[in-house]
Amino acid sequence: MAASRLRVIDLETAGNGPHDVCEIGWQDVTLGPDGRWRVDEGRGSRLVNPGRPITPETMAVHHIIDDDVAGAPFWKAVAGEVLKPEGGVQALAAHRAAFEQRYCTPRFTGGAPWICTWKCALRLWPHLTSFSNQMLRYQRRPEGLVRELGLPAHRALPDAYVTAHHLRDMLDEAPLEQLLAWSREPGLLPRVPAGPERGKPWNRLGVETLRAFAQDRDPNLRFSAETELRRRGATAEPTADEPAQRTLL
């Protein structure tokens, strides 16, 4: 089973603390006898007691209230059961998986590798205008996605269900090993996301502008700029015989 099952995970939380999960949803993607990946019937969700009140800001997103989770088990009682199911999984997946990995630590996952469908979407579908889970849903219209099962948005099971369709389509375009490799790297942004250069592809930027981005605090910006510099055979820092800033005269 482990060699033919990927489990997509989505979490809803009470806030930003380290143990604030209030719902976990999952949807399995399995390898069929025809050698094609498919979204199967393996799905579910569990409410989780976060151990503290849910903030109004997060209630306004997912509409889970304190009364809903008052009698639910705590995260440590739920996580292993979902993240390490009987038969195992070949990998776990999530959209912007770094968020889920904050809570789904190796203690609960058994060290399973992760696929980040956001990072993979950047690589496979760079022509799209936005890469959020829901925007991918409506830009791409994945085959077989049942609208009712993907609603309401911002609840754990519907969001995992939608993400699973993106993952299935990605596996039709790239091997699993490639998705895992992309997921281990920062996101390769197809365009500058903000600022004066917003919307420009990296190949339209000058070397000095790229070098400035390569010093940014955002690892995705740094990685994207560095990748373009390497493509040009340039470095992130000026070489000894190259002035840091060109003079006007």
UniProtKB/TrEMBL annotation:
Enzyme class: hydrolase
Domain annotation Exonuclease: ranges: 5-176
Single GO MF descriptor: hydrolase activity
Span list, region Disordered: 222-249
EC number(s) stated in the UniProt entry for this protein: 3.1.11.-
Keywords for the protein's UniProt record, in alphabetical order: Hydrolase
Biased composition regions of type Basic and acidic residues, renumbered to the chain: 222-231
Protein name: Exodeoxyribonuclease X
